[in-house]
Write a structure and sequence with these properties.
Radius of gyration of chain B: 23 Å
Radius of gyration of chain A: 22 Å
Strand order of the largest sheet of chain A: 2-1-5-3-4
Largest interface: A-B, 59 and 65 residues
Number of domains of chain A: 2
Order of helices and strands of chain A: EEHEEEEEHHHHHHHHH
Number of domains of chain B: 3
Number of helices of chain B: 17
Largest sheet of chain A: 5 strands, mixed
Helix content of chain B: 25-40%
Distance between the termini of chain A: 72 Å
CATH topology of the largest domain in chain A: Fumarate Reductase Iron-sulfur Protein, Chain B, domain 2
Shape of chain A: elongated
Shape of chain B: globular
Oligomer: heterodimer
CATH class of the largest domain in chain B: Alpha Beta
CATH superfamily of the largest domain in chain A: Alpha-helical ferredoxin
Strand content of chain A: 15-25%
Number of strands of chain A: 7
Structural class of chain B: alpha/beta
CATH class of the largest domain in chain A: Mainly Alpha
CATH superfamily of the largest domain in chain B: FAD/NAD(P)-binding domain
Strand content of chain B: 15-25%
């Protein structure tokens, strides 16, 4: 079996460094398989977060050769044979240990979002929704909460504006509620003020890294921005609000 | 020494362990009933095993075929479970599943729709009618996210990446739980009046499994160590279709939805071999020819169901036989072909994650080529023995729901009945725990010596100078269970297995994890060995006792179902001296009205004559 070079970031919040490992790799392996092999043979206490190993749970997010990815869906044969594979934790979130970061900030954001508020059931006790009307919402609900989009978002990653912007994941969550045919809530005001839709400058990096191929920017964030614009920046509506103090 | 008063401590009326569907649903119910509720989980919220469920949630909504109703769902479940299911549980499940699915819609779930705008339903193995509400092939994600997003607004305590180690008792009552934070390695004490185990199964005891690292039998072992009884442990479900190639993905699930939507199983001679494996009990309701099976797929309601949709136990055994007799695929499975039967666009729409999974992990385009599949350990039908109505175990204040509990599925679970199980019994466990807590006199007390013993056991792994690698012991266990306690079992293999388990138990008691306790994978792995080994021993012992072949339990030395074994369950419990014992317990006779439904002909049921 061919040996491969791996450089893994090892350390804690107090500091750390890259450590080199040489390990043999079998046909068909993904990066997560190799990390597990390193764990079993060379670095027993290596911290790696994972669950389903099939791209369904979004646990094994990390940065592999500089790109945010799911380790379970990154096949070894996509690297050139002599390429060293460098793996480090998500940069946008604080390190706990090795490849594991503290993503609790995301859970706090989710809790801030006003929950689903359904319209009453139809007379026969059912909810009627047409497939055409739910296609878009179902696209958003494919999200596996891997937070790769959060990791790559400039507003969160480079400008550290976690105080002002919830990030692409939660813009998508807001969109899935706002576009839900049964939902009666109105989150447009909070999308602008509390969740910071204006901070996104549409670079589409989030869309590029989404392992579920959700059109985060075009189908989610831009329509939300339009709703905000319609309500707050339409000149006629603005004038009416001024005049009638609404 | 451990000073209990210095441990981080939380106090709740109820602590739910596990945040998959059953745990989330139970915690939502407890909280709604006014209890102070805590929910602890080994992973981050929303990553539990429920997220991997693909095909759908079974409920007799009758949206796609109006002939469906709870009685037919109940009959299918009993027949699939080879009549070993707890009758009352199967009844509650079939009656209440539709309400639980509608409730999810009210909480924001968006299932695929029929043309009338109702929840669509798909065909699945062992279900008479299209019955599985679904979202493509990512139904589990939809369910866990819906429950999670609903739960975070209920105001109860959620403890993520926090692992339970031991139940603490006050006499014969549950008093609390000792756990540790994975992140820091620090211990945490939960004082509580009741505990609901929603800890799932134990697939990680086998090498080829669809289960994630979390499935280490924690609930089974904690209940067992606390003196509660386990039941039906011999019934471990091998899902017929796991991936077989490349080796690193061996075992990853391929949804039964592929067959529900028209996929067929072929051997190396391109033969649809399932026609040769139709059991007598199912013959009157299964297509006899390919021509009839094709008419069924085209929507002809007079045609019978294709044999690929027989129950999982039957299909898994058939695949093993084809492979053993030399008619397997190149990598030791069989072919699952949907490409030649369904348009590519439909495959991508109905089975998007299967398409994605094969493309990314195996470089196979399932819209053009067949998949290679083989059996993979998927589910434990057995578990903590519970009361059918309250979900309380034989230990006061200890409840179990979902895969952690026994009884609902008998000898074999139908696909789709797990998601409905965890919704129905998660809620009922919440109600049961609430009644127990509200009827309680004095609160139980924590016994410091129990806490101390638990902490010492856990820290010894880090403190000892040398010892075996926990990874190596786990590896040996997986090897052993695959070889000796697999799909087809024999007295000899099981006896050998038991002897080797004794040796592994000795190895496990001396493992060493290097490094500190902070997010230490080796330490976590070492701590998981005890529950894995308790479960493995319980399965092996129960499998030795049951001298027949029924559902997922197949004995080459005792082929076929035997009437007298249908009247008993095998119970596993801890003896006074600390050893494990098995007891054969006689089942109560089935209620007459339920027996009449389960044994009715399908014609009578459809005509309302039962």
């Amino acid at each position: 079996m061919p040996e491969r070079e791996f450089r893994l970031w090892r350390g804690t919040a107090a500091g750390g460094a890259f450590v080199d490992y040489r390990i043999d790799v079998d046909a068909g392996m993904v990066v997560l398989d190799v990390l597990h092999r390193i764990q079993a043979r060379l670095a027993q206490d290596l911290a790696v977060r994972w669950n389903c190993k099939a791209g369904k749970c979004g646990s094994c997010s990390m940065e592999i050769n500089g790109r945010p990815r799911l380790a379970c869906m990154t096949r070894m044969n996509q690297f050139t044979p002599r390429e060293t594979i460098t793996v480090q934790p998500l940069k946008t979130f604080p390190v706990i240990k090795d490849l594991v970061t503290d993503v609790s900030w995301n859970y706090e954001q989710n809790r801030r979002i006003p929950p689903f508020r359904p319209a009453p059931r139809a007379a026969d006790g059912t909810f009627r929704m047409m497939q055409n009307d739910v296609d878009r919402v179902q696209e958003f609900r494919k999200c596996i909460e891997c937070y790769l989009c959060q990791d790559v978002c400039h507003v969160l990653r480079d400008r550290s504006r976690k105080d002002a912007f919830v990030g692409p994941r939660f813009m998508i969550r807001l969109a899935s509620l706002e576009m839900h045919p049964l939902d009666t809530g109105d989150r447009v005001a909070s999308i602008r003020k509390e969740f910071g839709s204006g901070l996104c400058n549409i670079t589409r990096c989030c869309t590029e890294v989404c392992p579920e191929h959700i059109q985060i920017t075009d189908n989610g964030i831009i329509p939300l921005k339009e709703r905000v614009v319609d309500r707050y920046y339409d000149p006629l509506l603005w004038l009416r609000r001024k005049l009638f103090r609404r | 020494m451990v000073d209990v008063s210095e441990l981080q401590t939380f106090e709740h009326d109820v602590l739910v362990i596990g945040a998959g569907g059953a745990g989330l649903r139970a915690a939502i119910e407890c909280s709604a009933l006014g209890l102070s509720t805590g929910l602890m989980c080994k992973s981050l919220l929303g990553k539990a095993h429920t997220v991997m469920a693909e095909g759908g949630v079974a409920a007799a909504l009758g949206n796609v075929d109006r002939r469906d109703n709870w009685k037919i769902h109940f009959r299918d479940t009993m027949r699939g479970g080879k009549f070993l299911n707890q009758w009352r549980m199967a009844e509650l499940h079939a009656r209440e599943a539709p309400d639980r699915v509608h409730e999810l819609e009210e909480w924001g779930a968006v299932f695929d729709r029929t043309r009338d705008g109702l929840i669509s339903q798909r065909n699945f193995g062992g279900h008479r009618y299209p019955r599985l509400a679904h979202v493509g092939d990512r139904t589990g994600l939809e369910i866990i996210r819906t429950l999670q997003d609903h739960a975070v607004h209920r105001g109860f305590g959620i403890y993520m990446e926090c692992t339970a180690l031991d139940l603490l008792l006050d006499g014969d009552r549950v008093a609390g739980v000792l756990g540790y934070w994975r992140e820091s390695g620090r211990f945490v004490l939960f004082k509580t009046r009741a505990v609901i185990l929603a800890t799932g199964g134990a697939g990680r005891a086998w090498r080829v499994t669809s289960n994630s690292w979390e499935y280490t039998g924690d609930g089974y072992a904690m209940a067992y160590e606390a003196g509660a009884e386990l039941m039906d442990m011999e019934f471990t479900q091998f899902h017929p279709t796991g991936m077989v190639w490349p080796p690193s993905v061996r075992g990853i699930l391929v949804t039964e939805g592929v067959r529900g939507d028209g996929g067929v199983l072929l051997n190396s001679a391109k033969e649809r071999f399932m026609f040769r494996y139709i059991p007598e009990r199912f013959a009157p309701e299964t297509a006899a020819t390919e021509e009839e099976a094709n008419r069924w797929l085209a929507g002809d309601k007079s045609a019978r169901r294709p044999p690929e949709l027989l129950t999982r136990d039957v299909v898994a055994r058939a695949i093993v036989r084809e492979v053993n007799e030399g008619r397997g695929s190149p990598h030791g499975g069989v072919f699952l072909d949907i490409a030649s039967r369904v348009p590519a666009e439909t495959i991508r729409r109905k089975l998007p994650s299967m398409y994605h999974q094969f493309k990314e992990l195996a470089e196979v385009d399932i819209t053009r080529a067949p998949m290679e599949v083989g059996p993979t350990l998927h589910y434990c039908m057995g578990g903590v023995r519970v009361d059918s109505d309250t979900q309380m175990s034989t230990r006061s204040g200890l409840f179990a729901a979902g895969e952690a509990a026994a009884g609902m599925h008998g000898a074999n679970r139908l696909g789709g009945n797990s998601l409905s199980d965890l919704l129905v019994f998660g809620r009922l466990a919440g109600i049961g725990a609430s009644q127990y807590v509200k009827g309680m006199g004095t609160a139980p007390r924590i016994d410091g010596t129990q806490v101390e013993a638990a902490v010492r056991r856990a820290t010894a792994i880090l403190n000892r100078e040398t010892g075996a690698s926990p990874y190596a012991v786990h590896d040996s266990l997986q090897e052993l269970m695959g070889r000796n306690v697999g799909i087809v079992r024999s007295e000899e293999d099981l006896q050998t297995g038991l002897r080797e388990l004794e040796r592994l138990k000795a190895d496990a008691s001396g493992v060493k994890a290097p490094g500190a306790s902070q997010y230490n994978a080796a330490w976590h792995e070492a701590l998981d060995l005890r529950p894995l080994l308790v479960t493995a021993e319980a399965v092996t012992r129960a499998a030795l006792v049951r001298q027949e072949s029924r559902g997922a339990h197949t004995r080459v030395d005792y082929p076929g179902e035997r009437e007298d074994w249908q009247r008993v369950n095998v119970v596993v419990r801890k003896r006074q001296d600390g050893g494990m014992e098995t007891v054969v317990v006689r089942r109560a006779d089935p209620p007459k009205d339920l027996a009449a439904i389960a044994y009715a002909t399908i014609e009578d049921l459809e005509a309302g004559r039962a």
